[in-house]
């Protein structure tokens, strides 16, 4: 980039920021619910200052060079923050492209020679296009981190181990049971058995949409691990269609106690523990005899 152009951009740095802010604030899609005007101005000002300083580098296209680290670091931080705040890729892209429009507007007003204006505009286009690619790459990484974190949280929430009675645990499973989730179910259940000293665990699969051979294998592994801990495991929530599927697939669950509902599984657990639950009226009636 020529010395005169650099001098023009540095002199018009404040003007570039104001044009850029005007463009962003006039955008009907501006998400004022996600970022305040003060924070937007602070982000924009920091990026403009770093970018104008870096335009003096000889190589304007090599974004992997150390000279661009400061700009990429600022832009990457903005992209990650926007991904976590809930901005869409389109909204983040408009943020960068509107800066290019502001710089090109300043060049058009400050350079009178058409040939020089064309050459300098092309350089700015290449720089901003490369920075846009960096922005999208970083934004996608940030969004993937958000999705992975939410997936872990949902998985953790969807596999609660409930202490339904002294010595009896229940683990209602909702959704598809895959290998990774089976591992979490198994770890949570075994840890709770150790902490509570429970001897019976009920796996309720009423919320599992379908049972195939793979899901059955996961359940059998969980039951086997529970038994190694000295506890008996009951699988409840066996609906008629699931029972037919298990029989059709030839899956052997004969060594596992299965029940149609959580209530019947709990009743069977009481029977194993030799517990008898009666209505208060029944007890009084018994005492009257």
From TrEMBL:
Keywords (A to Z) from UniProt: Phosphoprotein
Domain STAS, chain residue ranges per copy: 158-269
Hydrolase in keyword set: no
Pfam family membership, one: RsbRD_N
SUPFAM superfamilies membership: SpoIIaa-like
Recorded superkingdom: Bacteria
InterPro entries associated with the record: Bact_StressResp_Reg, RsbRD_N_dom, STAS_dom, STAS_dom_sf
Database matches in PANTHER family: RSBT ANTAGONIST PROTEIN RSBS-RELATED, RSBT CO-ANTAGONIST PROTEIN RSBRC
Name of this protein: STAS domain-containing protein
UniProt source species: Pedobacter endophyticus
Lineage of producing organism: Bacteria, Pseudomonadati, Bacteroidota, Sphingobacteriia, Sphingobacteriales
